[in-house]
What we know:
This protein is α/β, with parallel strands linked by helices.
Amino acid sequence: MTSPDGPHWLQPLTELLRQPPRVQSLNTNTDLLWLNSDHDTITGNKPWKLHGHLSRLAHKPSALLSFGGPYSNHLHALAACGQLLSLPTIAVVRGYADCALTPTLADCQRMGMELVFVDRNTYRQRHEADFLAQLQQRWSATLIPEGGSGPHGVEGCVPLAQWCAGYEQVWLAAGTGTTAEGIVTGLPEDTELVVVNVVADQGELLRRWSAQVPGRWRIVDDMHGGGFGKIPTALRQLIDRYDTQGIALDPVYTAKLLNAYEHYGEADKTTLLIHTGGLQGRRGLSER
């Protein structure tokens, strides 16, 4: 398994992702892998997906444009990467300009990102070719899908599998499943990937993976806590419990990962849990 590589203009990000992540032992058979770096903001799985999209571009783009909500980890990472690479960034945000900025969007704006607010009906057009062409023409920007998803995002996450060798199981939380699909592509045949779906998608991720994704994997579909971004009381209590152990969990992904592992984990198997970051989103806990 090789480290991430890319064109010369992308080297500042490439070098950050080449740093080995931190591994924390939780018990005799279970480790927690933190996708961290020396950068305060560029952490977690989102920069890996972005690297997959950007590494295919031989020349530095004039700007980057993507989509997200008011607490988007993806937009936060995109703004930070744009600042690192001296690249203008634009975000099409689901929401209204006259509302107070969330801490996430305030960070994005501080890092130089231009925020373009649209209503829900307009936001639904983010997958339509005509709408995307209009955006590309208006800002002369390279478009990146919401969340960094898509084949290029998957390719960006394949190198993460190098940190998973030697375990019988690897667990991580998934929304679009992009990071998980990249990892399972590079896993040894004797390692099972367990994907905790944080979206109440009525089995859509399972159906798609069953049709398209080879390898040893299974999807936990009943630990989403009511849906994407939903944070029930029991999950808040779990976050508080892990805080007392010095393990910070984000409410959207890693808290649901640890909750699922506590319910379904197999103590006799060597297991790696992947902490995909997103801790900036904890600032919105009191608002949800």
